[in-house]
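Quick one:
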Amino acid sequence: MKTNIKQNNWLNQTQAKLISSITGMMVFTASLLHAQDPVTFTDDFEGPALNPFWSTVLVSGTITFPSSAQVHSGTQSLQVNSITTAENKWIRLRHTFNQPQYGQVSIWVYDSGADLVSGNYISLNLMNDTLGKYLSIGTMDYDLGPDNGGHYYYHAWDSQQPVNTPIDRTRAWHQFAIIANQNSVALFIDGQNIYNGPGGIPFETIEFNVFGPSWRPAMTVYFDDFKFSSVVAKDITTFTDDFEGPTLNPFWSKVEIAGTISFPSTAQVHSGTQAVQFNSTYGTGEKGITLRHNFNTPQYGQVSIWVYDSGADLVSGNYISVQLRNDTLEKYLAIGTQDYDLGPDNGGHYYYHAWDSQQGVNTPIDRTRAWHQFTLIANQNYASLYVDNQNIYNGPGGIPFESIKINITGPTWRPAMTVYFDDFTFSSAFPELSMRISQVEISWNSITNKTYKIQYRSEVTSNVWTDLFGPIMGSGTRNFVMDAVIPGQPRKFYRVIELP
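Output:
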């Protein structure tokens, strides 16, 4: 006799365990297990032992940890050593998730093989082994010039072979970053975009490694400051702050350098009776007065806030800006002002900064001493910026933001200034999904003219077996019954009994 449970809805994982089998009775238990993948993970390699997040493969090589020979930050890094043996080299750190992921991965790599005519391959890979596909940034196992191993390469999901990039290999620290989302893929080296392409393939495994044929020389490579963040976040999906409360909302963290934040303030308001007031001071150092929110995982979405531009028409003032930041990639979207207003093409208009801008870009919108709305939209497929609902920029997307930053800044010699902000809104492009198991289907192979009873036990029944269905006459085929799953109900165990 066989038993089976089939879920009507999607499950992370179903574990079925046969707990006993005796004459005339078969007992079956089912427990629903939800995989506990992290939504974020950071490893700065500063601990005393390697984090158990990682598994290792050591073929013709070793891992030295901790290592202080080369570090990107802190005092330690991970050292990978290949050695010369009769076997091919393969030294790898790997993490396999319980469930396929979309998200962002980055790591810093010290490229010891740059400028060497013979070395080892180095790579960061996001793998989907089920589909036999991978994303990768890495090096060849030689450096013979720009078009012959002297530049970094990448591999897209559907690449047939590695693709050369314009970025020269150097014997230094370099950041490899990969974003793999449902709609898009983007690859970066040192914040420079090297590839954009279609998404839709999740990754099951992260690995970084050093490898090569047996005849290549021994080599030592260093890795540091690893980050992973899933796009499936447990962050809020919407947030509105009209700054009408008695204290500043804990959504915000404050930085007050050469200035203060006054809250609540009634001196200038866009709506209601309160706003948040930023006050810079003169001559006490570089100004940096900031409200900031850091998300648990990178976001796509829309942010807007109203700004009272106190610096309009002033020949000397402070910078004002609203930013969506991806600090891992050292990129940001921004709308703001210069710290002076000397006319239309000289600080007198609002400016923007796109993900790949080298500097602020002037807009046609004149600064005025009034309330203005800054709106920033960052999605998988596009980015758009607006001042007072007037579109000032449209460009490529695919870069999520890790934080929102509202600030006034300026050098110490700029004058003190007061700026007001009001009516902030954030909405994620990824509303949080929830799924629930609504029913369990229990089935078993029955025998004609035999009678069966289905029982269950749980915490509710004090783990005593209790009749659920039956008696049910066997048909000589597979019999089915359905049991509803009530929200919050304790886990049930089921058994099918053949009656005398």
